[in-house]
Amino acid sequence: MSTAARVRTSLRPPGADMQQTGPCMLWCGRTAAALHWLGPLMLPQGTAALLVCAECAERLARAGEQQLAERDRDAAIPR
Ligand SMILES: [Zn+2]
Predict the structure, then answer these.
(1) pTM of structure
(2) Does residue 52 surpass a pLDDT of 60?
(3) How many degrees, rounded to 5, is the angle at CA 45 between CA 41 and CA 46?
(4) Could you name the domain of life of the organism this protein comes from (predicted)?
């Protein structure tokens, strides 16, 4: 399954100009990555675009899937 199908990404935020390559905002430290928009990043100063590379988007998807699996496993335990 492609990353785009695993996490909801877009090549650009709706209604905004965006560079297609640039620094990934997550873990890898790439400075010239092909960027995917994951969604709004809410900050006290305003809303920024969360722009990440495909590898970091995949890592984030795995972390989210693990969290959901743990939640489902906890919910299945009889009390
Ligand atoms: Zn990255």
Answers:
(1) 0.72
(2) yes
(3) 45
(4) Bacteria
58 C-alpha to ligand 1 centroid (Å): 9
CB-based contact 53:33 (threshold 8 Å): yes
Tokens 């905002």, residue located: 25
Among positive and negative, which fits the CA dihedral 36, 28, 23, 33? negative
pLDDT at 56 over 80: yes
In 3D, which of 39, 43, 45, 44 has the Cα closest to residue 60?
Answer: 39
Average model confidence (pLDDT) for the chain? Answer: 82
CA of 19 to the centre of ligand 1 (A): 15
